[in-house]
Amino acid sequence: MTSNHSYLSSINPTIKLATHLLLMFLLMAVTNPLTTLAVWIFVLIIGISIGGWRLPYLVKVLLPYIFLFVFVFWMRAAFGKGEHVIMEWAWFRVTEESLRNGLTISLRMLGFVTIGLLFTSTTDLNLFIMSLIKQCRLSPKWAYGFLAGFRCIPMFQEELAQIKEAHRIRGYKYNGSWRAFIRYAVPLLTQAIRRSERMAIAMEARGFTGTRDRTYYRSPTIAKRDYIYFGTVIIIASIIIYSITINR
Questions:
Q1: Residues 6+ apart with CB under 8 A from 205
Q2: Are residues 94 and 21 in the same domain?
Q3: Is 124 within a domain?
Q4: What is the pLDDT of residues 80-137, one digit of tens each?
Q5: Domain of 40?
Q6: How far apart (Å, rounded) are the C-alpha atoms in residues 188 and 195?
Q7: Do 46 and 118 have their domain in common?
Q8: Do 40 and 114 sit in the same domain of this protein?
Q9: 8 Å CB contact between 212 and 140
Q10: Looking at beta carbons, which pairs linking 224-231 to residues 24 or more positions away fall under 8 Å?
């Protein structure tokens, strides 16, 4: 999770997370596809205008979810229940109610993905952890543990690739998924234990005790623009939902 240095990346991560979670809750309350589509377009506008998104980036990231969107829509539409039948063939029974439900569920899923992407693509992981410590009063022990865990994920990927290459050079053949899993899991687990011990020793050697009474290199604060972002996004989303619902 890295920041793309857009304007949205300057928003406090805790306020941004609260905004996006509340936006997801509002989206969960929507029961018609037109309103869900409008909220999703609103999120896209935020990402393009102040989130630093570009069209090639959106196509690359959202294209896999488009296929999932079509699959979920078809499953809900073709096997749903309803009284007003549009098409019925073999075991497929498409109704107006199932089409409406399928569009709502699939668009809601796409909205959740886009809202989550809006947060992860504009938030620096280190700043997010520091914000959780300062604004959410998260214990530094838990915070630095999460940070160390996230930092180890790319290392595990590199080590797994190296182990696979080493097995391929030695002519190892895959005779079963469980045997391959054990052959990979044991060295990865061993390296993880060694790395965790080294991290613990290094943190203790540098005086880390897990107490809150300590200094930080980066200390996030809540500014006026953070409240403006929170209020603007929630108010506009509420107006969109309310206006379309009333008109219908």
A1: none
A2: yes
A3: yes
A4: 665 656 666 555 666 667 777 778 888 888 889 999 999 988 888 888 888 888 888 8
A5: 7-129+222-247
A6: 10
A7: yes
A8: yes
A9: yes
A10: 225/10, 225/11, 226/11, 226/12, 226/15, 226/16, 227/15, 229/8, 229/11, 229/15, 229/16, 229/19, 230/15, 230/18, 230/19
